[in-house]
Protein 1
Amino acid sequence: QVQLVESGGGLVQPGGSLRLSCVGFASVFKIYGQGWYRQAPGKQRELVAGIAYGGSTNYADSVKGRFTISRDNTKNTVYLQMNSLKPEDTAVYYCNSLQPARFPWGQGTQVTVSS
């Protein structure tokens, strides 16, 4: 089975930046596209950024203009560049297919934005 591993999280002050990385996407993920999800305490898991098979991207309104999703197919890696971070961005961030019910979730990586 596939295994997704997220990394790059940490503690950052408001206004700071982080880049998350996700490795482990098998070729079967390609047709579904890839996404970054997050789950904050007491909240439902939500999709914050996605990149489709053809390369088009989409973002949740809450992160538009601040987050950028990208991928490097040669490294089998998907990235999430997060700029101008806000306390409300604090969450565990996960990568997965844009059809995540088909694949197992990884452990995620914790992002904490705090002064």
Note: The chain has a mean pLDDT of 93.
Protein 2
Amino acid sequence: QLQLVESGGGLVQPGGSLRLSCASSEFTLDYYAIGWFRQAPGKEREGVSCIGGHGGRTIYANSVKGRFTISRDNAKNTVYLQMNGLKPEDTAVYYCAAGAREWVGLSENEYHYWGQGTQVTVSS
């Protein structure tokens, strides 16, 4: 099965930046659409961004457009989520997930492989 591991979370002040990473030691992530999702305490998990397999097609939730950027480094078999201009409402556990095909979008039901999550806390 596809194994995903997130890293890069932490504590940051409002307006700060973090870069999250999603990696696999066994599978080539370029084959898959990779999505980032987040879940804040007491709230449903929501889609943040997705990048398609084998290409540069991307999609972002309206709440993060202009602040977050998703990208791939295939040489490192890693997908990144660069988060700038962080706000307290961005505080959540962030998960990466792999879709079953090259393009999936932001629907949680389209993803079959999930990492364990990394905590992002934005607080002054």
Note: Residues 30 and 53 are 5 Å apart (CA to CA).
Protein 3
Amino acid sequence: QVQLVESGGGLVQAGGSLRLSCAASGRTFSNYAMGWFRQAPGKEREFVAAINWGGGVTYYADSVKGRFTISRDNAKNTVYLQMSSLNSEDTAVYYCAQSSGSSTTDVVGGVPPYWGQGTQVTVSS
């Protein structure tokens, strides 16, 4: 079994920054691609960012390109999402996910089998 635990969510002012963390356990972390998704009230879950098994390839949704950065530290079994220039459209529950494969396309194109419980990010005016 894989456990993913997100942290770092909270209330932030518009234009501000926030960094989310996701700590993984249960299987070899470095073998698998990771991703971040989010879901706002009344909206569908949407893809945010993905990173491949080694951390050298990333992929972002158009809505967050240039503002968000995904990274990973395999020695710490942790993936991060650095968010900047936050706006109200970024308000959502953010979920960490672990893919069944090693590539970013495995995250974007499929449905990751493992998910965290989510962490709330609220951007205030």
Note: The chain has a mean pLDDT of 94.
Protein 4
Amino acid sequence: QVQLVESGGGLVQPGGSLRLSCAASGSIFRIDAMGWYRQAPGKQRELVATIPSGGRTNYADSVKGRFTISRDNAQNTVYLQMNSLKPEDTAVYYCNVDISLAFSPRRAYWGQGTQVTVSS
């Protein structure tokens, strides 16, 4: 089975920074697109950023210029560097990874979620 382990969440003051990590493990044959989503209480889960295998990044308008998504293919890991954090960024952040197994078709896998709280 595939496991996605997230880390790096926590409590930070407005204007602060956090770096989220999501490492995939298991019998992985290939990883394609990777991304981050977030969900605040009472809100729908929303896309934060994606980074396809080709490396072209995409960001939600609300985080553009403040967040940076990157990946380390050798470590099967995706990162989200979050700077200039705002209270509106408070949410549970989930990584999403498009994975192919050796004998199974490609599908998306989700991390367990990590809490990010931005508050003074």
Note: The longest strand covers residues 28-39.
